[in-house]
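Q: Can I see a sequence and its folded structure?
A: Here is a first one.
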Amino acid sequence: MSSLLSQNKDEPFIRKSLSDSCPASSAANTRSLRHGRPSRLGSSSSSDVSNDTSTNHAESYFLQRESRLSAKKKAEEEKMNSDYKKMYEKALATNQRLKSRLETSKQDLATVQNQLQTVQGKPDDCTSKMLEAEKKESWSLKKRISDMEEQLKVKAELKLENQRLKDENGALIRVITKLSK
């Protein structure tokens, strides 16, 4: 296998094989060697140094390009992660709001049931208007309870969706860490 001379700022000339360099630069090197002039390849050591300098420029170009692409990809992934986080926080806020509404409805129901029991205990004292009002109130509370049950179903669906997004987020993070290694 052919070897190239590469020069670092700190080190003098070091022999480096084509397989040690990055794949993109080795492909560029083989292309430049294939398409280069035959007189340049076999002429003298000064042409080797100039060819080596162009190789270093190609390597640095490809390394810079790779770093720009990886930085761009990392920024996009961070944006996606923050989007998942925002969706998660929004779902949590909705869940808390629904829980508080459910608690107030339960308290209202308990007070109405207590009132109903006291009224049922003394039917002689109540008028028919009070009974009708109690029936209407109880009907409205039952309707409200059924609405809350539907909201609880929605909450359960949101929890499942939230868990799915967490799992997907974890999978994406694992892929990102594997890709970054």
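Q: Show me another, different protein.
A: A second, unrelated one:
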Amino acid sequence: MAEDIDDLLEEVETKFLTKDKKQSRSKSNRKEKRDNEYDIDDLLDDIKVEPIPKTSVASVSNDSLDFRPASGKKCFPVYFGGSSCSQGMANSFSQRACDKLRCTSCDFKVCSFDNFEWHSETDYLFLRNNVPDFHRLKSNLAPKNGCRAYCCQCSHRSIKDLTQLSDPQLKWVCGKH
């Protein structure tokens, strides 16, 4: 009797069902035969994936908008310095200003601006409202050759020489390279 029903179903499928319906019917039959096991290929066939549009980001002199995956290496010790200092991953052999600083207080990437220093009236509220937008921050930045202005959303520093990050008020750490 089961064979008769299968023959009858096959005859109905060939006469009345379209190709799309046959495919969905065969998929459901395959799923029933496998006792409801997940088939990744079937799931992927059902999902329509659209490509992610490429966005253009205006480049500024900071790396706060860098979306590259981190490799897991951290600077030790952590340095920051003026625009004459090279940036990159620091270690005990090569002393470089870290370009992947992150603040643990506000949980924000630290921005750096070459050949600028902060005005003395720069405060927490100004940074909180304007970081990381350079065009909004430049009202409190003064041009100064050899200097580099660093900031996050809660603190700021202007540095001329390569310095080890040891100020207890700054909660900045290397955010992995």
